[in-house]
């Protein structure tokens, strides 16, 4: 956490960043809710001294439901979090456990109830279509249980297993093979996403992108919309990615190299790729297609 503060301090002193107000803030790229309430309070207090975010349009925080306690959520609310994203992924305990998640179904309901009680302005639920062991019947149950909770927004991702993982080597593929002990293929995952969005639309939600449905069309997802329209983003932490003035950047990807750079008083950038005007056009076009339209 001290290293992160040091990096943010160095960024704030650079000419390209100095005095720029924050449009959005996003705590993610992992599960920051593993930190204690006191660690979060200390971290966010120090960050806000460097980069105040009181005027930011959105401050998002990703959570693993099993790591939450009510006092931790109270801290997040006090620190100015406006969008709480719960990584539910699935409701079935066996699937959650087999896929290495750190929560169970009861903890989902408990965390969601506390979040509603504390009146976070926006609560999002993440689902993953195609977790190992998923099938049609259980996916339909996931969709129904999410609808019963009635979150402000729902984000649905499709599980991707790189070819060199143990799962990819050992599991059969639904749609291509016998479905016992299986991973879904891409047509099946797409069908699950289509089914989910169809059910959400029947319940009054509006699909606003390839991954997101919103209960109220006035709801904003500032982080998504800004990035997909070419906004700058300063990614902080080991191996984090950023985008600034048409240049993709990535921090050093090992802890040792990252710390060594900080100890020299230098921003821990590892590599950068400047985009041509054509690259920028292609990038923003592809990103906007995720919203189903070009602005």
Which SSEs are present, and which pair or pack?
Layout: H1 2-13, E1 24-27, H2 37-50, E2 58-63, H3 70-78, E3 83-89, H4 93-98, H5 105-117, E4 122-129, H6 136-149, E5 153-158, H7 166-170, E6 172-174, E7 182-184, H8 186-202, E8 206-207, E9 212-214, H9 222-227, E10 241-244, E11 247-251, H10 255-263, E12 269-274, H11 277-289
Helix pairs in contact: 1-2, 2-3, 6-8
Q: Quick summary of this structure?
A:
This protein has 295 residues and is of the alpha/beta class. It is built from 11 helices and 12 strands.
Describe the structure.
With 295 residues, this protein is α/β, with parallel strands linked by helices. It has helices at residues 2-13, 37-50, 70-78, 93-98, 105-117, 136-149, 166-170, 186-202, 222-227, 255-263, 277-289, and strands spanning 24-27, 58-63, 83-89, 122-129, 153-158, 172-174, 182-184, 206-207, 212-214, 241-244, 247-251, 269-274. The strands form three sheets. A seven-stranded mixed beta sheet has the order 1-2-3-4-5-9-8. The chain has a three-stranded antiparallel beta sheet with strand order 10-11-12, with no helix packed on it. Strands 6-7 form a two-stranded parallel ribbon. Strand 8 and strand 9 (212-214) form a beta hairpin.
